[in-house]
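Risk register update: the risk of archive-format incompatibility is retired. Evidence:
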Amino acid sequence: MNTVERLVVIVLFDGVDLLDVTGPPEVFSLARRETREAAGYEVALVAETKEPVVTAAGVRVLPDVTFEELRTRSVDTLVVPGAVESGGDGRVRAVVDPVVVERVGELAARTRRVTSVCVGAHVLAACGLLDGKRATTHWSTARQLAADHAAVRVDPDPIFIRDGDVWTGAGISACLDLSLALVADDLGEAVALRVARQLVMYLKRPGGQSQFSVPLEQVATTRRIEELRHYILGAVAEPLTVARLAAHAHLSDRQLTRIFKAELGMTPHAYIESVRVERARNQLEATDATLERIAAGCGLGTVDTLVRAFRRRLDTTPTEYRNRFRTGSAPVA
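Archived output:
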């Protein structure tokens, strides 16, 4: 293995959830492609031996390296997936292997950033890495995590939580959301947005409720509307009227409105507001910026307008949203 700027290590063990293992590498690979390799990510799958590991889906995965071979290496990001077992009552419980806990603890000591996906949080908790921290996991094992580890402040609602250099993610497909957040933390949200578009998904989902995010990749069948969507994203803080958009696209106001309804299922005004709320939502999650600054920066103008837009689209207020979905300490953007 060559020395790289960002070595991402994903832990393997028998019974591990397959998507927890394969999802993050897709995100990091796309980040490299979108930056023409400048992202510097290299992903290595680590296990006790190099024998095939049987995942919960029955698919065999080959490790790249053993824990012993990584003993002298510094790791940028450690990704710890999880495994569950189902009881006779149909309920699932997280499975924690003491050997995996020991190995993860050793690796974490020389890792810049430690993350878990799905029930991998139980492994981090067993290592003591979540003591005194706020953390999340799959909703089905959140009570178990709280019961087994009283020192962990378990919050089952968010898609992912950042507490310092420890990140925890919720169930299975949320590994993509967490990985996108890691890319955004490393390379900025512009790169994460490009990766999200390639994955045809949201840039960042703040919680399990899909109504809290605006799809970034709604399908548009014409290049003109697709270009307009990018134009709106780039000019979201500016006055955006139907007349301005129509002139930019060389359409009449009526034509523009008809095409937006047909292709995006909403009027231009509604789409612009949804994008502005999305921009404000991301700022509330990731920065300490004041509501006044956020309202101005996303084109909503005043705090009153920001509050009304949030109540209309998310049935909450900006302050309530920030309190619930804040991902961690961050500088003012």
